Amino acid sequence: MRKLKLPPDSERVRELAAGEELLLYGEVLTMRDAALGRLEALDSRGEAPPFTLAGHVVFHAGPTPAPEGSSRGVIGPTTSARMDRFLPLLFRMGVRATLGKGPRSSEAAAEHASSGAVYLAAVGGVAALYADMVEKIEVVAWEDLGPEAVHRVVLEGFPALVAIDASGEDYLRSQHNVFRCRDK
Length: 184
Prior knowledge:
With 184 residues, this protein is of the alpha/beta class. 21% of the residues lie in helices and 27% in strands. The chain has helices at 10-15, 33-44, 87-92, 106-115, 127-130; strands at 2-6, 21-30, 57-59, 97-100, 118-121, 134-141, 150-164. The longest helix is centred in the N-terminal third of the chain and has 12 residues, at 33-44.
């Protein structure tokens, strides 16, 4: 497994190949349905969010609150296909990669290719295990959204797979993947 320091520069993103296994180290921002909807509403009014997305990795996740005495709760990926409609907005704002779980549409693969971005997939259902691979979780914006607020998460050896590379190759749908997914 190759180590990837986050946030990655655009050259490093272009070097990643579909199917490559990674260990992620560094900062990501969580955004899922509610936060992405709020971001879209701000953008439609010509307003900027209270944080910078340029160069970042957006992790589709909603962490649980940290227990007393800890700097983090548990965290796991959520289904990224639900967020596909927000990809043009995220990539226009400079996001270099998304991280989540499950396959994405062929349109999402095309969006990644046209933006030179990658989709990193993680296994779902093991949020408690992933908690040991997180150094810190803190709210960045929109705390009123609870677990769906935007959080800054520092990952330490978080495992992921390059599911869609910057050329648009979709490993989860490729002939090389024995568990390949199909569009519905």
